[in-house]
Write a structure and sequence with these properties.
Keywords: Coiled coil, Transport
Strand content: 25-35%
Pfam families: BSH_CzcB (PF25973)
Organism: Marinilabilia salmonicolor
GO molecular function: transmembrane transporter activity
Protein name: Cobalt-zinc-cadmium efflux system membrane fusion protein
Length: 449
Amino acid sequence: MAGVMVLLPSCGESAHSDHNNNSAHSAEAHAEEEADVHEGHNHEPGSVEAVKEELNENQVLVTSQQMKSVNITTGQPSLEKVSEVVKVFGNIALPPASEASVSPFIGGVVTDIRVIEGDQVQKGEVLAYIEHPDVLALQQDYLKAVNQDKYLEQEYNRQSRLLRDSVNAARTFQRIEADYNNNRAQLQSLKQRLEMLNISAEGVSPENMSSRYPLFAPVSGYVNAVMANSGVYVPAEKEVFHVADYRQVHLDLKVYEKDLPLIEEGQQLTFRPANNSGVGVMRGTVLKKSKRFDTESRTALVHAEITERNDNLLPGMAVVAYIQNGDEAVWALPEEAIVAAEGKHFVFRVVEEPHEDEHALESHVGHEHAEETGHDHGETHDHEEEGEHAEYVIFERIEVMTGVSQAGMTEVVLDDEHLQKASFAVNNAEALMSEMKKGGAGGHQGHNH
């Protein structure tokens, strides 16, 4: 019995010791698991992910690449007279001086075409060459006239002296004078014809005569039509290229008879393509009303200048425009800037302008230094490409009161002067709301343990 009594405490002591050891190992394992869990949330200070963790529940961070991919743009509120507007239809047009047809002065074979449709060209740029024997003959005639001019000028001066000295008859002098003047007229005519072929008359000599001449772009712009190919013969005055300067596009709007008295020069308007293909609201100003009335459609043409436009506007595109003729101007934002949720209306204000995170700049400098010294920083470079370090913008969601919606613009109540001067997301703000919901409150979703 004594032996048993001695052994029991020993067993208990051993069991207690094993339990303590197991508890210690369990605590260590739990600590390691906690460390592993938190290890993924240790972001570089100043990086995009680190900044996201500091955002509050009404803020959202998007990279410039994200903004570009979903077409998020920023802008400021504007004073608009949206209470009364005249809705009109029209199209994008070019003034006659902003487009030009390129055709040969002398017909010939097209060679060396240097452009295709869609190419941007500058005024005076060579588009192609036209080759024909008549071009060579014209230069030959010019050189003959130049040589004849030198001879006739000398003979004219000689006969003039003889006439003064009464040695020669006046009829002889008059004949030489007529030949001299006729040749000078012929010389000027040939010179002008060479210039119409874009050939410099002063540069023509027996050594450099050519059977071809260049076709130049008469205006700066884009080539929107190429109507010939190399090797084909084109007659004189046949259009070979068409060049247009799209920077000068304007609006040609058809206003119905009943609305004409409401339209005045200087009125502001908003417009967008008729197909409404995701393009934001653009702006313009009424320039003038045409004095011609179309009796069939019962409309008159109104020309409007485009003051804010999209680079994708092309002549001929149909548009819908809203000419503002109300009296009171109110603060307004494009309809795409306002998001309705939970019975409220929200806009997204820019609270931090686009900039690159600090760590990205350091990594970029380090990468350049590695290239100079020959060291490999491939891991850092790959990390940047993954998108953690990139240029970003921070938006803040703000609840607003809205009013009248017209012409793609919605009235918003902005009593705070700072908000009136602030920048907002003016296109596809729905994407910001989705990004905010996806990231949770301030982007902390997944960080609660």
